[in-house]
Design a protein that fits this description.
alpha/beta; two-stranded parallel ribbon; globular; seven-stranded mixed β-sheet
């Protein structure tokens, strides 16, 4: 029990340290835009953030995307992820062993469950895109990125309950627009640890086995079109779910990176 409390305390301390870093970064940005003793209002600044006026309104759009930084160091190789029967009620979903993580999960042998350790270096995942496993200690801010992001950070987001929608870079614009509309239609959720988010990431991904792949921790579905009704079914079932999220309550903000849409 004491070790669990210590781990929780360490995690909260990490979150607070990251928030302090982000506040310091934002102060530097404001100083750079403020001149002398007066405030110079530049019209372009208005485009940086569009206010969200409802829990499922338009996505906040930023003028500049900042990709989450990559990772370096010793490589961790993930052992082959083990699958179990699909009992989700959504056809085509591939389910993986997550026994013990979340605590209530018992869908297979514990020795074969997806890892969940924090590692400093890159991870060679056994599933494309990753469906869980060891990952970087620092998550990324959830949202839409139009360039690939480090898998080690996206996997951490899934540990907190995020849905990761990946698409082939050659996906037609009409399909991509459909994904963006789907993103904007999702409700905004608030973590008890602070921060509100749609708990979704949308990014391109090289080498996908299908035009679109939607993933949560331990579950994955391949799709040929963004209009497939199973996409919303998957999101509704697994996004920030008490049943399926390993670290339910973990934030999807306060990390690294600035998405195009949040």
């Amino acid at each position: 029990m004491a070790s669990r409390k210590q781990a929780k305390g360490d995690r909260r301390a990490q979150i607070e340290a990251m928030r302090a870093q982000e506040r310091a970064r934002q102060r530097k940005v404001r100083i750079a835009w403020l001149g002398g003793g007066g405030i110079v209002v530049i019209a372009a600044v208005v485009a940086i953030v569009l206010a969200v006026t409802s829990s499922s309104g338009p996505a906040v759009t930023t003028a500049t995307q900042v990709l989450p930084p990559g990772v370096s160091g010793q490589t961790t190789v993930q052992p082959p992820a083990q699958t179990v029967a699909n009992n989700t009620g959504i056809s085509g979903v591939v389910a993986y062993v997550t026994t013990g993580w979340p605590t209530s999960s018992n869908n297979g042998p514990a020795a074969k469950a997806l890892g969940h350790n924090h590692v400093a270096g890159p991870v060679t995942y056994s599933v494309t895109p990753p469906v869980g496993g060891d990952h970087n200690a620092t998550w990324m801010n959830c949202g839409v990125y139009n360039q690939p992001v480090p898998s080690e950070r996206a996997v951490h987001n899934m540990e907190h309950g995020a849905i990761w929608i990946t698409y082939q870079p050659s996906l037609p614009k009409s399909e991509l627009d459909q994904l963006y509309s789907l993103f904007a239609s999702q409700t905004i959720l608030t973590s008890p640890e602070g921060g509100s988010s749609r708990y979704m990431d949308i990014t391109p991904y090289q080498g996908l086995p299908s035009p679109i792949v939607v993933t949560s921790w331990g579950f994955q579905l391949r799709l040929t079109s963004a209009t497939d009704p199973r996409l919303q079914q998957f999101i509704s079932k697994f996004r920030y779910s008490r049943q399926y999220t390993p670290e339910y309550g973990g934030p999807c903000t306060g990390g690294v990176g600035t998405p195009l849409k949040a």
